[in-house]
């Protein structure tokens, strides 16, 4: 069964595996991380293996993803879909929740919880409660290859993988984004539509994303020039 991750990544991996796919900035910390399609796929595979092997989720399981727009969030989302999960973007009756530490209280009812530090150097979150998994520590031991496992059920907002992929392509067309573009964005991904427009639309047409957290308006024009930006999504 073809998953949403297969649909998004396979054409990119075939066409341009080594070129920049997601470049992430944080204008407060000064961090910059760049991932090729291969590196993004490896992180997604590690996450999918963790979802399946460490947490025992079967295709059709529900994964709550309560994370900001970030390169690690992209890897988590793609990994969850590769494992055949349905992703929800709010606290819900989830089999697994992947969250930042400040949102732990929102997922007290989840069967399993993993916390992301989102640290640029992969540092773990200290002093986590018993029974809560540190993503950075655990994900790195999992394999960076994965055989996808979908069940054809809903993957986001009640829609199937094919429906979400179609919505992403429509969003790209509406924004005038093509596969030749390098897209600058500071949009959040906190709702299904925001996620489709801010991340999935870019991947669905094979474009490249420069995602900025805590954007400094004074840096925008300089960054657009240095990153060879050809399209923008307003925050």
TrEMBL record:
Residues 219-235 have a biased composition (Basic and acidic residues). Residues 214-235 are annotated as: Disordered. NCBIfam families: TIGR03089 family protein (TIGR03089). This is TIGR03089 family protein.
């Amino acid at each position: 069964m073809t998953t949403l991750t297969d649909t998004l990544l396979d054409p990119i991996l075939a066409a341009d595996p080594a070129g920049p796919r997601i470049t992430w900035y944080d204008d407060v910390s000064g961090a910059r991380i760049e991932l090729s399609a291969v590196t993004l796929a490896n992180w997604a595979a590690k996450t999918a293996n963790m979802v399946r092997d460490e947490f025992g989720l079967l295709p059709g399981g529900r994964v709550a993803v309560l994370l900001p727009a970030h390169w690690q969030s992209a890897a988590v989302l793609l990994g969850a879909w590769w494992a055949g999960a349905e992703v929800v973007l709010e606290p819900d009756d989830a089999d697994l929740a992947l969250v930042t530490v400040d949102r732990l209280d929102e997922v007290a009812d989840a069967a399993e919880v993993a916390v992301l530090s989102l640290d640029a150097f992969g540092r773990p979150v200290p002093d986590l409660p018993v029974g809560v998994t540190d993503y950075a520590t655990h994900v790195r031991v999992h394999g960076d290859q994965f055989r996808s496992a979908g069940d054809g059920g809903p993957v986001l907002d009640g829609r199937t993988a094919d429906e979400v992929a179609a919505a992403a392509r429509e969003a790209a067309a509406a924004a005038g984004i093509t596969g030749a573009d390098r897209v600058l964005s500071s949009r959040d991904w906190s709702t299904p539509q925001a996620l489709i427009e801010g991340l999935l639309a870019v991947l669905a047409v094979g474009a490249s994303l420069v995602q900025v957290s805590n954007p400094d308006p004074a840096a925008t024009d300089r960054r657009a020039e240095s990153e060879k930006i050809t399209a923008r999504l307003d925050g």
